[in-house]
Amino acid sequence: MKRSDHRILATHVGSLPRPADLLGLIQASAARRPHDASKLESRLRDAVTDIVARQVETGIDVVSDGEAGKPGFIHYVNERLSGFEPSRDAANRGPWDGSREVASFPEYYRSLKQDPHDTALHLECTGPIGYCGQAAVHRDIENLKAAAAQSGAVEAFMPAVSPTNVETWQTNRYYRTQEEYLFAIAEAMHEEYAAIVAAGLILQVDDPRLVTHYNLNPAMSLAECRRWAEVRVEALNHALRGLDEDRVRFHTCYSIDMGPRVHDMELKDVIDLVLRVRAGAYSFESANPRHEHEWRVWQSACLPEGKILIPGVITQSSVLVEHPDLVAERIVRFAEVAGPQNVIAGADCGFASFAGRDDIHAEIVWAKLAALAEGARRASERLYHGSLTRAPS
Fold first, then answer.
1. What is the pLDDT of residues 261-283, one digit of tens each?
2. Are 241 and 190 in contact (CB under 8 A)?
């Protein structure tokens, strides 16, 4: 994994708005409707080439394919895991129904238009889970590697969903216990993780559920949520077994983009569990008003030697484009805590985690990424040509 040895590198969380003509093909494929598969493959290659090139032109160093070929960051695995069939009871349930957040702001959440991932296909497990996504992951890997090489990107990463998010998205009707079900998913996802790393890409594991579970389960205490999360970290580490930690980055966030978010789990209550994940870098929210103050938690977190922080210094939770000087200030805070070489500037979350979900218009997304890149440049001027050139003792 590249480090910020000479300047602050810039990256993001992975998902970016898909081109409109590609979006229709992706959604048809995900919904198992008739579509031109060869046209999808051709358009996807071109889209990834364009998306990667634009990231590099914007100043992003560590790029992704924008998750261009995925209908969503979770349910893309519907086509990659065997042992599942369409669910009988998951439809028509909103993702935040029953949460602490909706209980506190019921009128606000009733006023929202339906979220595209409310109707995304949920499955239920009816047999042994296996991995059958070899062709799909190979396609995504080859598209990204070709685009990265053509654009001259510093490095490329590929997101993949965590076992925990698959577990909670789908329904178990086969395994005797939820834990047995969880570890079966982890065993299957290991193949996807290993393929990404073996291809020379950085693997990013997306795991918002680790910190979102508290909000979604009002009957659970904080202590109970932590015990739940401990098992999920163990399962993820099982899925990551044998992989070089330096080739893995872990991302968690709170799933809500636009909302009051008063029930987000606090970083101080979960940071020790996050640091148990076998990863070389940790990506997290720190640019929105609910979590920006939490940079101070890292002052006493005892970041293990050699690990990298990827704090969000721009957010998907607002259409405001951050000023580059503010972005630079956010970066410098973390550099003072962990050392400049151990910080990569990132985003709070993806900008199109579900295909077709455009809370922030594409032209604003690219303006935010440009602000991220410029902020990293300004922070580098201070950190590498000013007084903050050494890691703290």
1. 999 999 999 999 999 999 999 99
2. yes
Residue 317 to residues 260, 285, 349, 368: CA-CA distances in angstroms?
10, 10, 9, 12
Are the beta carbons of 311 and 286 closer than 8 angstroms?
Answer: yes
What is the rounded end-to-end Cα distance, in angstroms, of the chain? Answer: 23
DSSP letter at 297 equals G
- Contact between residue 327 and residue 314 where contact means Cβ atoms under 8 Å apart: yes
Distance CA 368, CA 10 (A): 12
Q: Angle at CA 110, nearest 5°, toward 293 and 104?
A: 45
* Nearest one of 147, 114, 188, 195 to 16, comparing CA atoms: 147
Q: Which of 127, 250, 120, 122 is nearest to 184 (CA)?
A: 127
The CA distances from residue 211 to 253, 254, 304, in Å, are 7, 6, 21
Q: How many helices (H) and strands (E) does the chain have?
A: 12, 11
Cα separation, 89 vs 139, in Å, equals: 32
From CA 220, how far away is CA 226, in angstroms rounded? 10
Rounded CA-CA distance 90/110 in Å is 19
Owner of token pair 């296996």:
130
- Whether the Cβ atoms of residue 203 and residue 274 lie closer than 8 Å to each other: no
Mean pLDDT calculated for residue range 237-249: 98
Token duo for residue 164: 């925990």
Side-chain half-sphere of 44: how many Cα atoms within 13 Å?
25
Nearest Cα residue to 288 out of 251, 248, 261:
261
Which residue type occupies 144?
Answer: L
pTM of the full predicted structure?
0.94
For residue 191 the two structure tokens come to 């193949």
Distance of CA 70 to the CA centre of its chain: 13
